[in-house]
Automatic annotation (TrEMBL), chains A, B:
A Pfam family reported for this protein in Swiss-Prot or TrEMBL: Coprogen_oxidas
Taxonomic lineage from the root: Eukaryota, Fungi, Dikarya, Basidiomycota, Agaricomycotina
Keywords recorded for this protein, A-Z: Oxidoreductase, Porphyrin biosynthesis
Cellular component aspect of the GO annotation: cytoplasm
Molecular function GO terms recorded: coproporphyrinogen oxidase activity
Family: Belongs to the aerobic coproporphyrinogen-III oxidase family.
The EC number(s) this enzyme carries: 1.3.3.3
Domain of life of the organism encoding this protein: Eukaryota
Oligomer and partners: Homodimer.
Pathway involvement of the protein, from the record: Porphyrin-containing compound metabolism; protoporphyrin-IX biosynthesis; protoporphyrinogen-IX from coproporphyrinogen-III (O2 route): step 1/1
Protein's recorded name: coproporphyrinogen oxidase
Length: 254, 254
């Protein structure tokens, strides 16, 4: 983390820690209908301040934004994945053509369930440590000033409704079978596995004394299912298998 | 871990690791009926050998047994908890009166969902690093020789059926309501949280390249449920609240 924020003092220079400010917003929707994908968005801001200059307006030692949005279908509708990605690509491209390709790849890497060798869903965008300095994964052709980065993050926030609601409207009332519901619940088991085993925010949150557990775990689905050695999804020609193929081999959607 | 097995070489003395043998058996039963408790038992054996003496029968550098059994009800029947604990106490007492009290406390400590401030269930017994040398948690009044420790572990294995099956027989056909099923599924969500966030065996297993994920995650329930800010269990006088009381304040059952 500090590698990304070299203006921060080293731990030995601030043994008692440093004052900080953190703000974030998270959104997770798990629709009942198996044809309607789960959607997630999260945007966050961190700021570390100098305790020796607490009344100065220039006392910020380091600041950064993080966040992203991703789509997790149980049944693959390629047009939905393309629409979701295209909406975020358009929002990114207004700031820099370099952003979407990097943030798309980062999303596929982050939401990877390593013990299953599959991604959580069809991805979207993900980023962290967005600040004015050099960035380990991003080119310099991006918003750098704090106001510009905030405008970029606001723009991504505003993209969620046009990215997701048209998909939800189209899928939420489709007819579905008990078998499709069963598959959806198995996929939600994988969502639980990712969030509890791999997600950094969840893991850090649960280890924090006094953390508000209900807020941290609001990302979990209402119901999840596990089947020992389930054969659902193993037939590559089935609708379930078509989803698995793109989770095992992330695709360029736009 | 090495603190418990001082005969093992230090990592710097064996940079390539050491040959090992591991064997274990795990059993988890999640009954459908909310009045019938979940039961879990696991016994395991590890052995580390000296690569320089691979054809010697005395090439074992360190060996130890671990294991235990615990009960996780959704509805509290104190007589069930007492029967389960009494069965394991009797099995332990045949080897040493010092064992059950230590293994009971260890179980309550191990199966603790720290982020919820509650135990997973009403406990049972738990132990690790049982070998011939000094033990950090156990007195010397216990089986020490390898054959004696194995006999003790076999005796605990044999105690599972008399500890659990009478409870299952009595509860498996009780009438239950949709609300009781809902509560059972919420409790199973907590079981998932413990296993994926806290359980050492699960965490190590999932991080091991090439691990058999289906075996590791067979402990998860068929269905689990999460409710944001659920009020179930909050009324201390309700049947759900009576369970919560003993999960928050582990009890001596025998």
């Amino acid at each position: 983390m500090r590698a990304d924020h070299t203006s921060m003092p080293l731990p030995e220079d601030a043994p008692g820690g440093l004052p900080f400010f953190a703000a974030g917003i998270s959104l997770v929707i798990h629709p009942r209908n198996p044809h309607a994908p789960t959607a997630h968005a999260n945007y966050r801001y961190f700021e570390i301040t100098d305790p020796a200059a607490s009344d100065s307006p220039t006392n910020v030692l380091a600041w950064w934004f993080g966040g992203g949005a991703d789509l997790t279908p149980s049944y693959l509708y390629p047009a939905d994945a393309t629409h979701f990605h295209q909406t975020y690509k358009t929002a990114c491209d207004a700031f820099s053509a370099d952003l979407y390709p990097s943030l798309k790849t980062w999303c596929d890497e982050y939401f990877y369930i390593s013990h299953r060798k599959e991604t959580r869903g069809v991805g979207g965008i993900f980023f962290d440590d967005l600040h004015q300095g050099q960035h380990q994964r991003l080119t310099e052709n991006r918003p750098r000033e704090q106001a510009d980065v905030f405008a970029f993050v606001q723009s991504l926030g505003a993209a969620f409704v046009p990215a997701y609601v048209p998909i939800l409207s189209q899928r939420a009332n489709m007819v579905y079978t008990p078998l499709q519901r069963r598959w959806q619940l198995i996929r939600r088991g994988r969502y639980v596995e990712f969030n509890l085993v791999h997600d950094r925010g969840t893991k850090f949150g649960l280890m924090t004394p006094g953390a508000r557990v209900e807020s941290i775990l609001m990302s979990l689905p209402e119901i999840a299912r596990w089947e020992y050695m389930s054969d659902m999804g193993e037939d590559a020609l089935s609708e379930e298998g078509k989803l698995m193929e793109v989770l095992r081999n992330p695709r360029q959607w736009v």
